[in-house]
Amino acid sequence: MAARGEFSSRIGFILAAAGSAVGLGNIWGFPTQVASNGGAAFVLVYLVLAFALAYPVLMAELIIGRAHRANMVDSLGQITRNPLGRLTGLWGCVTVSLILAFYAIVGGWMIAFFAESATRPVVSQSVNEWLTSYSLSSNMVFCALFLVLTSYIVLGGVKAGIERWSVRLMPTLFILMGLLIVYVSFQPGASEGWAAYLVPDFSVVMNPDLLIDAMGQAFFSMSLGVGTMLVYGSYMGKHEDLPSIGAAVALVDIGVAIIAGMLIIPAMYVALNNGVEIFSSTGELIAGDQLIFTVLPALFNTIGPIGLLVSAVFFALMVIAALTSSISMLEVPVAYLSESRNISRPKAVAIVTLVIFAASTLIIFNFSTLFGFVIALTTKYSQPLLGFALCIFAGWVWNRNEALAELKVSSPDMEQRLFWRIWPWYVKFVCPLVILLMFYRSVV
């Protein structure tokens, strides 16, 4: 078996791990949740809960990964020393593959809308209509293209693939977001959007639904439970201080979500000023795919010739956000095949990509039945249960002294630090209970 890859720099790991966490949900979900749930008050609650809930689980994945220097299946197998750990790891590989199967379809839409914006002046109207038609042929072509881009990056391995592209894509994402924020902020109506986003309404802070929603956003925005952070942690150098590097990843992820709000909410109110409907029939701000593929394109069409450029930049931003997440998802099953099954990386990437594309194809041909079902099955049911299982393995099954020994490799004073005084019992008792609470609420 070939030597395992390793991130060559601290910043490379932080940008790759943060890129894994920074997905489309940060950009199309978080901003509208903020504006609809007390503005800056929700942001404060989210910040607290991100570190109270998501950070401890993130640390569990990173510590387990780096301690065992292995994929999710082998790492959990070494902890339990029985088939249950390996079965849980395989469950994680299947879940993340199914997530990528529907995520690739959405990523394909982003590429299609980018292509439509970039080529509108030079291609026929029929081509432009096909690009954004959501037809079987366009869905298949652009889903395949998205998976090819993802597999090309993963094919390069840790240093030449994932790290190399993460340190290019993540700064580009920040630059594009910054440029769009500046442009949108000077448009009529933007000030109302800034007010909706930043002015706090503390009267709703203790609303139980808001608290649970903030917990869910904090947990799931960091792509926890499916092994992406565990695998990335296994590629981290032994000299890195784990608690501080985990905090840096969490801060970058939170920062991107907050900055996305600075773009999306003012843009929505600019759209409202230009005559575009931004509220649903129930009076809530439109969110999700309808926001990205209906509201914002309508806005871009109302701002003249520069709207094409703004649209192209925006959808380039969305493609980058999708790719930084998809490469970490693909790496989870690829790492398993290449390490546990001794399959070469090129062959493992090809096998996993083809299997995921087959799943995507099945979803595309049965879209109305399977698309929502697969999203619910993976993100609503499987992912929180996997997060719960990881907390049980880290807090109850894994020997506490082994976890401490791993942390002391890079931080000999770990026993005296606040992190070690809190984290072991917190991930053992608090995190599992909160995850079960979220799961119960989402299901019942």
What is the secondary structure topology, with strand pairs?
Layout: H1 10-21, H2 24-28, H3 30-36, H4 40-68, H5 72-80, H6 83-119, H7 125-131, H8 136-155, H9 157-185, H10 190-198, H11 208-220, H12 228-234, H13 242-273, H14 288-301, H15 306-340, H16 345-365, H17 367-397, H18 400-410, H19 418-443
Write a structural description:
- The chain is mostly helical.
- The chain has a single domain (10-443), classed as Amino acid/polyamine transporter I (Up-down Bundle).
- It is 80% helix and 0% strand.
- The chain has 19 helices and no strands.
- Helix 1 packs across helix 15 (306-340) and helix 4 packs across helix 19.
- The longest helix has 37 residues, at 83-119.
- It is globular and about 65 Å long.
- The mean pLDDT is 92.
